[in-house]
Amino acid sequence: xxxxxxxxxxxxxxxxxxxxxxxxPGETVGGGEFHRFPGGKGANQAVAAARLGADxxxxxxxxxxxxxxxxxxxxxxxxxxxxRDDGESGVALIFVNAEGExxxxxxxxxxxxxxxxxxxxxxxxxxxxxxxxxxxxxRDASFFCLNAAPARPIDVEPDLLVVNRYEYETVxxxxxxxxxxxxxxxxxxxxxxxxxxxxxxxxxxxDGTAAGDAFTACLVVSHLEGREWDEALTRACAAxxxxxxxxxxxxxxxxxxxxxxxxxx
Length: 265
What we know:
4-stranded mixed sheet; 6 helices
């Protein structure tokens, strides 16, 4: 039986411009290449978990434009708990430079209007939704993972906290903490003590937009499959590396077979 997972989080439309370099304040940089993708950290992690073999339910909110939700549903994710309204969906404005680095500004839209609701079982949340929604999701979950991005203080201690080194400065409470550091890999901390470490396979970075989402989803799905934490962390680093080697958020997310292949290479 595949592991069951509920993702409570954001659903966005990603408006992406590829540029040679980022503009300085007040500067206009020409020659950009524009793309429109389905995105949002919640939707990305739901799609990633589904491609990795989990049975996934998404809880979120969209506006009148259902473009991003249609893409999630096409991946086999259960979207019956996604509410709709007549306002604007969430939008992420993303610039990606020639080195694959990105800068992102999110206008939350409908994500900010998501209301708390009870969820059970294994649950993953991020912080592109209101705090009260995250706290409600954590209350009845049997296993609760928080990917604390974008980081802000929140009074919850998840079973698993996923953060990068900058987010860790703001949110550090978690029974287990997966601390990511880009191409250097990740460590898993329990009570501040390292219990596992992994490095990603080498890839050519193209766009890091959804690398963290692929990492988070793969870490949780691997754990729910019964894998040891060191193996789960290794698989998560591989999933993140694959995502970083491809352009776009959801189009970059790997399948379980692709994770197996890159680890076997």
